[in-house]
Specification:
Blueprint (H helix, E strand, L loop, with lengths): L1 E4 L5 H13 L3 E6 L4 E6 L5 H8 L4 E5 L19 E3 L2 E3 L3 E7 L6 H13 L4 E3 L17 H14 L3 E4 L6 H7 L2 E4 L7 H9 L4 E4 L6 H12 L6 E5 L17 H8 L4 E3 L2 H4 L2 H13 L4 E5 L17 H17 L3 E2 L7
Parallel strand pairs: 7-8, 7-14, 7-15, 8-9, 9-10, 10-11, 11-12, 12-13, 13-14
Antiparallel strand pairs: 1-3, 1-4, 2-3, 5-6
């Protein structure tokens, strides 16, 4: 249920309502707007008697049942956008961030080269996989811990925050030691023990949509993370599996405005995986941004033809530079702010 406080409610009255929410076995989530404070009481469906009980408390204006199955992700609980802040800028609420880098960390030289040029061209975050979930057990699986160390070195040199994928609950603590944000890949989007584990970590989470997942299922996966106390979740539309074979996956651009109308969480687009070919990445990226995305996560490699994974869809440096120039102009036309590192820092 959602408890709407009166405009004139005092801080003491708000605190007393929060304590009462906890006393009856619900989890409180406080959202402070410009005019009113909203308190979400998260738990099983409230009884009419319980709603009447809260309605009678001092300072309470109204008690409303939450209709959505995803409670903490819903705009009913928080009617304004969540904005996440990194050392290089913000994402959400009109702020756009681009994360870029190689699909996989293959070597120190390759990763540092990529980190240097993605910073030079304006990316606000470095992406790179140290652990790689692959369809084939014989494909490159990543460098593991050594890959994490390389990413940490790239962060020290460039100042870019790092996002990398975590594959199992047992890896969360290890990866969180090195990464600034944890990525949950499409194949693990409904790995509920993993979602709960990253929910207990104190790091932002990039949650990718599963390839056969509805948007409501997507938000329910986010709810697993939020329900463990981690409200720093970014939803990533990365393409879904349809009957179409021309592209690797079908980028559901419509997911962006739909999600933005359902949830306060930032929404990003991954144009690389649905494209499957580097010459389609830029149009898909711009389409996602034009649809309202708060960020992009893009694959780029110093020598894509030699990449050990996803070679066909990784951008050359000059293509990434072209993408960033267009993103910068589009963001300005849309009245959005593009997060970017300070060169030379």
């Amino acid at each position: 249920m959602l408890i709407v406080m009166k405009r004139e409610a005092t801080e003491r009255e708000i605190e007393e309502v929060v304590r009462e929410v906890q006393r009856v076995g619900y989890r409180p989530h406080v959202s402070r707007g410009e005019e009113r404070t909203l308190i979400g009481a998260i738990g099983k469906g409230p009884t009419p008697e319980l709603m009447e009980h809260f309605q009678a408390l001092p300072g309470v204006a109204e008690v409303i049942p939450i209709s959505k199955p995803y409670k903490l992700a819903s705009l009913e609980v928080q009617p304004f956008p969540t904005i996440l802040e990194f050392p290089t800028g913000k994402t959400g609420g009109g702020h756009v961030m681009v994360a870029a880098g190689p699909c996989g960390v293959e070597s120190r030289e390759q990763t540092l080269r990529a980190a240097r040029y993605v910073k030079k061209h304006g990316a606000g975050m470095l992406r790179g996989g140290a652990f790689k979930p692959r369809t084939s057990p014989y494909a490159f699986q990543g460098l593991g811990v050594e890959g994490l160390r390389i990413l940490a070195e790239a962060r020290r040199e460039t100042g870019l925050p790092v996002v990398t994928e975590v594959l199992s609950p047992e890896q969360v603590e290890l990866v969180a030691e090195y990464a600034d944000a944890l990525q949950i890949g499409a194949r693990n989007a409904q790995n509920f023990p993993l979602l709960q584990a990253v929910g207990e970590a104190k790091k932002p989470v990039l949650l990718k949509r599963g390839m056969s997942m509805t948007l409501e299922e997507f938000l329910m996966s986010a709810e697993y993370i939020l329900s463990r106390g981690n409200m720093q979740v970014i939803l990533v539309e990365r393409g879904i599996r349809t009957f179409e074979k021309a592209t690797r996956f079908t980028l559901d651009v419509s997911a962006v405005p739909v999600l933005k109308s359902w949830t306060h969480l930032p929404v990003w687009v991954d144009p690389s995986h649905p494209a499957g070919r580097r010459d389609w990445v830029i149009p898909l990226a711009l389409a996602g941004l034009a649809a309202g995305a708060d960020g992009l996560i893009v694959e780029t490699h110093p020598e894509p033809e030699k990449a050990l994974s996803d070679a066909a869809q990784q951008l050359h440096e000059e293509e990434f530079a072209e993408l960033m120039a267009k993103v910068r102009r589009l963001a300005e036309a849309l009245g959005r702010t593009l997060a970017a590192p300070v060169l030379g820092s």
